[in-house]
């Protein structure tokens, strides 16, 4: 779809503009979360920006920031501000609160993607088109209000869209029962751990799983609030902790976080590992600490001679 020409029409109570900014946090650190993106936009526009969200983009390592802007002049100013930043893709759509008549007004696809004609738009390369904008905004208008700005210590973001984590159920162990024979030694019963290692269940076994993640190579400037914001971008942690030198109290770039289930922890590892954060590439894996989630008792052995 080719980008439209000059701005046209007057904004009213049913029309507004959607600013979409895409890029790696290496070039666009303000896409770390929706509060940072809204603060950055607020600095360059005259009127208060509206509904704002940040999500993982369709391209590898990409984040996308979405922000509703009410005034034409503010949308123009925000576009110029972000389009001048290196490695950042910017789209402006004219949208409507009462219909699906959305229209792309301008974007910087042509200078961002070699081979495109001047002032043209590539929905395939950018991952952004009017249909996707229509569907996404429809969800936000169907029950979401504009998020209110709070201090950086806020830990729950109700506007981020995450895949639903499947509910975890405790696995049922069904070991083979030993033969009911008199004066015959009990036959060892085996199951397998989550890593595939055989486990002898003759005397019972504890069921454990890793529900935490281990993060290293964090910036030494990371604060507890920064850690909460980072981990909350991929789920709802039940605990976060910065690890400090026991003698000096200095932070050494290592942290841990815990989730309610191992599936949530694995999801966090998948989406945080190798992410750019505050100028460093962080490494994330499942923590070695495990949590007891159940116990398997050995079956009763009946001695036929008694």
TrEMBL record:
<dbReference type="GO" id="GO:0003723">
    <property type="term" value="F:RNA binding"/>
</dbReference>
<dbReference type="InterPro" id="IPR012677">
    <property type="entry name" value="Nucleotide-bd_a/b_plait_sf"/>
</dbReference>
<dbReference type="InterPro" id="IPR050502">
    <property type="entry name" value="Euk_RNA-bind_prot"/>
</dbReference>
<feature type="domain" description="RRM">
    <location>
        <begin position="211"/>
        <end position="289"/>
    </location>
</feature>
<keyword id="KW-0694">RNA-binding</keyword>
<protein>
    <recommendedName>
        <fullName>RRM domain-containing protein</fullName>
    </recommendedName>
</protein>
<dbReference type="Pfam" id="PF00076">
    <property type="entry name" value="RRM_1"/>
</dbReference>
<dbReference type="InterPro" id="IPR000504">
    <property type="entry name" value="RRM_dom"/>
</dbReference>
<dbReference type="InterPro" id="IPR035979">
    <property type="entry name" value="RBD_domain_sf"/>
</dbReference>
